[in-house]
Amino acid sequence: MADSLQFVAFRIGTQQFAVEIHRVTEVISYCEITPIPGAPPFIEGMIDLRGQLVPVLDMRKRLGLAAIHNTMQTRILILRMNRQKIGLIVDEADQVYTIPVEMIQPPPDGADFVIAVAKHQNLLLVILDLERLLSGEEQVNLKAIGGRASVPANR
Question: Mean pLDDT over residues 31-36, rounded?
């Protein structure tokens, strides 16, 4: 269907966000995250996902929202960003939406991290631009953190 696109929707605070479905490899329940010394505050740490170390970002911290305790609905979205897997901690990941292209509009000026806004029934979904979620320097640091974390601890 070229006249519609699919998105995975998730909630952070009261705001509904979405990412293109082809960027999401899986959605997992919140699990223990190993902190990384020296990482930026919004990088929660790393998880071991079936033998692959994946850096995890706390979207509340990244968006400047107040921290909350993780609940049974808290999820980690595993995404592909610039040939690297990353995890995003979100309050809830609820469903996949198929949205007609004509219901997708450009974002308002000055909307960082946003590629578009989509209308679906009574919902407004803010579609994240994953490449702009992290600055170039932060992306390089994330790759370096991933490389550092993959060194075995018991050398």
Answer: 93
> In terms of Cα–Cα distance, which of 28, 24, 33 is closest to 57?
33
As given in the structure block, the two tokens for residue 118 are 């989509």
- Using an 8 Å Cβ cutoff, are 92 and 75 in contact? yes
Tell me the C-alpha distance between 143 and 87, whole Å. 13
Q: Are 29 and 38 in contact (CB under 8 A)?
A: no
Token pair of 46, please? 């790393």
Q: Which two tokens stand for residue 31?
A: 């699990």
pLDDT the model gives residue 71:
85
Q: Are 125 and 69 in contact (CB under 8 A)?
A: no
CA angle 66, 12, 35 (to 5 degrees): 65
- Burial zone of 143 (CB within 10 Å; 0-12 exposed, 13-18 middle, 19+ buried): middle
Q: Which tokens belong to 51?
A: 């033998």
pTM reported for the whole predicted model: 0.84
